[in-house]
From TrEMBL, chain A:
Pfam families noted in UniProt: WD40
Protein name: Anaphase-promoting complex subunit 4 WD40 domain-containing protein
SUPFAM superfamilies associated with the record: Quinoprotein alcohol dehydrogenase-like, WD40 repeat-like
Family matches, as PANTHER family: U3 SMALL NUCLEOLAR RNA-ASSOCIATED PROTEIN 4 HOMOLOG (PTHR44163)
A GO BP entry: maturation of SSU-rRNA from tricistronic rRNA transcript (SSU-rRNA, 5.8S rRNA, LSU-rRNA)
SMART domains in the record: WD40
GO CC annotations, alphabetized: 90S preribosome; small-subunit processome; t-UTP complex
Matching InterPro entries: Quinoprotein_ADH-like_sf, UTP4, WD40/YVTN_repeat-like_dom_sf, WD40_repeat_dom_sf, WD40_rpt
GO terms assigned for molecular function: RNA binding
Organism: Astyanax mexicanus (Blind cave fish)
TrEMBL record, chain B:
PANTHER family noted in UniProt: NUCLEOLAR PROTEIN 7
Biased composition (Basic residues): 114-124
Annotated Basic and acidic residues bias: 1-17, 38-58, 99-112
Species of the source: Astyanax mexicanus
U3 small nucleolar RNA-associated protein NOL7 C-terminal domain boundaries: 133-193
Name listed for the protein in its UniProt record: Nucleolar protein 7
Pfam families xref list: NUC129
GO CC annotation, single: nucleolus
Comp. bias intervals (Acidic residues): 25-37
Amino acid sequence: MGEFKVHRVRFFDYMPSAIRALAFQPQREKIAVARTSGSVEIFNCADRFFQEKIIPGREQAATEALAWVGDRLFSAGLNGVISEYDLENQKVKYTIDAFGGPMWTIASNQQGTHLAVGCEDGTVKLFEVCEGKIQFEKNLAKQKGRILSLSWHPSGSRIVAGMMDMIRVFNTETGQSVHRLLVERGIGASRSVECVVWGVVYLSDGTIISGDSSGKVKIWDDLTGTLIKSHQVTKWDVLALSVSQDETSVVAGTSEGTVVQFQFLSVVLGQEDKEWVQTRIFKNHTHDVRAVLELGTAVVSGGMDTQFVVRPLLDKIEERGPECVLRKIQFPHRSLVSCAKKAGLLLFQYPGHLELWRLGESDGHGASGSVLPVKRKPEKLLHLKIKGEEHICCSAVSPCGEWIAYSTVASFRLYRLHCDNNNVSITKVSKLPKVLSSANQICFSSDSSKLFAASTCSSVHVVSLSQTVHKFVCTLKPKSGETLLTTAVHLLAASEDGKWLASANSDREVQIYNLTKMKLHSTVPVYNSGVTAMAIHPTTNNLFMVHADQQVFEYSIEEKKYTDWSRQVQRNGLHYLWLARDTPVTNVTFNPKNPTHIILHDAYMFCIIDQTLPLPDSSSQFYNQLTLRSLPEKDRTKHSHAFKMCKTFKELMFVELMEDQSLVAVERPLVEIAAQLPAPVRQKKFAT
Amino acid sequence: MAKLQRGESECELEKGVRVSVEMSDSSEDEGPEEVAFEESRSAALKSEEEKLQAAKREKELLKEKRRKRQQFFQEQKKKRLLSDTLLEEFDTVPQKQKKLSDDRDEEKDNKQQKLTKSKKKKASRSLQGNCSVMRLKDESADSSMQQSAMDFIQARLYGSGTLRTTNAELLSLEKKRGVKKGAAVQFVNKKWGAEQKAKAEKSNKRFIHRQKLVTT
């Protein structure tokens, strides 16, 4: 297998932003996540919660709530503006000012015709959802006090709004307030502070469930306008509420990081009269939980500790499978690091700037696992701040280390880097072809002569780079004539010899283009899981793809069919421990000296697949590196199999093999992320 | 008519008294007095007329009140709006620049108007002295409202009254209660608690200097 010098990089200060809102679309099983940086991510529940799309945020963004209307996604924020997102091209389609001041909440009715927005000035504004836009319809009666949460009755005739110290029920036809439900303040010191109703839920039988800042979940009856039951769930605030589709289960997220479930059950077995009973408590977060979703089969929660947690409810799941796993998604499912292999440079993508580092050097030799003395420390060569308020969508550095390109939603920039031994200078390339206005993904060819930028409708622009003039060569379109593909490309891979380019879009289509003819060469057969990482082999020109359900495929580009090794893997089936991994593979790379080796990694392991060795069957030991090392040399070949897993490095964000046969492993310890989070609540535990 | 009635009845009473001095009881046994039909009809008509007149008087009073109020409101409105002369002035000001070649009379008139206009302009300037002009682009009211909304949420979640602790304490408690017990993060990781360590070092140096433990 070989020995590698590993550059263990921990100077990538990646800091995710907190989750502020969650919204579920039942038709396509997608969850939209809004973060405090203004970015919106779409996760696919059916595909192992793969992060399909990322819409970058902006500075001074304050998204507070999300709502789906059919296939369209809307968000409301403290800047007083409702935005609709273009999910195909992964950007904001348009924004409309509601003229009500900062908006705290947005909710769509079950019929999908109207959107209600709760504003700071005390009005609930109704918007009609038209084709391609939304139109203001009317204001409901203006109240004294801000509207913090809204919920439509399933029939669409009433809305309940949670405000400060009270809950109001409105009739949407007349716009008048039908009931005023007074919420009592907390006990002791909190009696002097107003009680904020953070979440409300309206059920079809007229029950209203509310969660407020005194830590209580209250159940009200809307016919009489009275309180039925009050449950003290926590000492801190109840920040979010969500009800399941069949209205039998409600989950509440609290400030102390717990998610409490209430179920509509009969207290005595066999009797008909049911009531809402507190059943389970899930403690999967360390900081405040600001958004929860009850999906029926799972409880999804997100909050200030930036983790997206999926907790399956095993009593609702019939079959044992990948849905039964507790998932904590911490890192993005895309690579934020790109590497200049020949120059030994790493480019880190932050939301507002880029950093370019040169790796350190070490001369020494040592035994496996030892730390080598560092001759020259890694140094930061470049800190490139972007102009404007938008966040960076994608970035790349060329393999020779001379070109850096990045793109936001509105602009595309290309820089030329001159790097003498100690002097680093950078010049911006000013005259770019006009086609390059923004890109969803950027890739350089291996000889750094061409730049590939993926833009709208799954097309890829090819630009040739030279010392002086940068010419736009052509646009590679996925299908000539017939049907145009509309979704954005999220992965690009160029071959080593410069003849082929592969692109994967979020509709699970993988296209391969012939760069000598500048035409579409072939399309890989569609697989029902999204591609998380792909790369083209330098010598055999086989496209190696890894999917979100951990399946591995190898497609021969020249022969336009799957390779024999790939068919054998499919016949054999992958080992169950490989399939049970819960983080996706984000990077695939090859070793030029060993053409049968494939190096790939996910967040908690990195692995070398040797195509000459036999595949493991379910009875053999999968993580066998340590046992092989203990065996004598002659016995090793009997027991070794193709998958060589290494779990030394944790919380990996990037693994790559450089030209000098040294590995780079970029790690981001979770403790470092936890150090920069906002303050958690103080809990007094026994014996501390 | 009542007097007539009374007069008659008095006569009758006198008669009754004279006649029935001996018989005092018989005045109570007498039947009701007979009043003539004509008299009662005229009395009823008169009372009705009086009622109508009273109603008319009330209506007129209300009308007057309403009229007065209406006038008062109109006057208030007029006061708020710019006077008609000023409005004319605004119309003529741009046209004034076009009319360069005018007759003398018109010039004179213009001069007079100018004087009056300038006076009025000055007057109008002083009326609106408290206002200043700003571009919408430069300063948006939204940002201040957004800031106050963000302050509200910050105060509710992290302000005074909320019991919050530090991340260092959270991680240290986890280590203390974990399966593998460890020391608090400030002591394990060099980056944590840097300020407290610096303070501790300074106070150590001060102590040593004061106690003169290190001989200089």
